[in-house]
Specification:
Blueprint (H helix, E strand, L loop, with lengths): L8 E6 L6 H16 L3 E5 L5 H11 L8 H25 L3 E5 L2 H11 L4 H12 L6 E6 L2 H11 L13 H17 L4 E5 L4 H15 L2 H4 L3
Helix pairs in contact: 1-8, 2-3, 3-4, 3-5, 4-5, 4-7
């Protein structure tokens, strides 16, 4: 199900590492926050509240090389459940527009395909964790794996490179392929943006999708 049973609108941002989705979200937030004020909630996964952020630190710690892949997937699902219960659902019940950096599709792509533990299995695990709640819109920022990895090497603070960033190209190729399968399977929800364009073009395309899906927030003062 989507979030249509709730008052608010839920939009997730997805993409391979180095796609620029977080930078785009930052730019979009700067534009929307003055317009929407407390009707806007911007959050991230894993994280978004103290418990989920604590789980995030365990998952992404580069020292945790012994972490089992299923353990990793379960930790993501646990962080997601707490994030949903404590942050996303209250915001949606309060009729807010929620923009979230990553959600279920990330787990399907990264753990299901990247870690090769099964896309269907990870999807089912997260269906339980989320009680089937999916975004009204998912904006997928698409770049080839080699492009994303070059961007990470060129621009990211070495202290912020995590366990997933240092995986080999084949891992990131599997992740991207899974995202593209998800987009093909759910074109009504997942909209693709070519993230090899300039940052300005990417942000403009994402804003257009947000306005289309959440138009009531901008046209009627929802």
């Amino acid at each position: 199900m989507g979030s249509k049973i709730l008052a608010g609108t839920f939009i997730s941002f997805e993409g391979p590492d180095g796609a620029g989705k977080t930078s785009a979200l930052t730019a979009i937030t700067a534009q929307l926050a003055p317009q929407l004020g407390d009707r806007l909630t911007v959050t991230r996964e894993p994280g978004g509240n103290p418990i989920s952020e604590s789980i995030r630190s365990i998952i992404l710690d580069r020292a945790n090389t012994a972490m089992d892949y299923r353990t990793e997937a379960l930790l993501y699902a646990a962080a997601r459940r707490q994030h949903l219960a404590e942050t996303i659902l209250p915001a949606l019940r309060a009729d807010q527009l929620v923009l979230c950096d990553r959600y279920v599709d990330s787990s399907v792509a990264y753990q299901g395909a990247g870690r090769q533990i099964g896309e269907t299995e990870v999807a089912k695990m997260n269906e339980f964790a989320t009680d089937g709640l999916l975004p009204d819109l998912t904006i997928y920022f698409d770049v080839p794996a080699e492009v994303g990895l070059r961007r990470i090497q060129a621009h990211r603070d070495p202290q912020k490179v995590d366990r997933l960033d240092v995986e080999k190209t084949a891992f990131h190729d599997r992740v991207r392929a899974a995202y593209l399968r998800l987009q093909t399977a759910h074109p009504e929800r997942i909209k693709l943006i070519d993230a090899t364009q300039s940052p300005e073009q990417v942000v403009a395309a994402a804003l257009a999708l947000i306005h289309q899906t959440a138009h009531a927030y901008f046209t009627t003062g929802k």
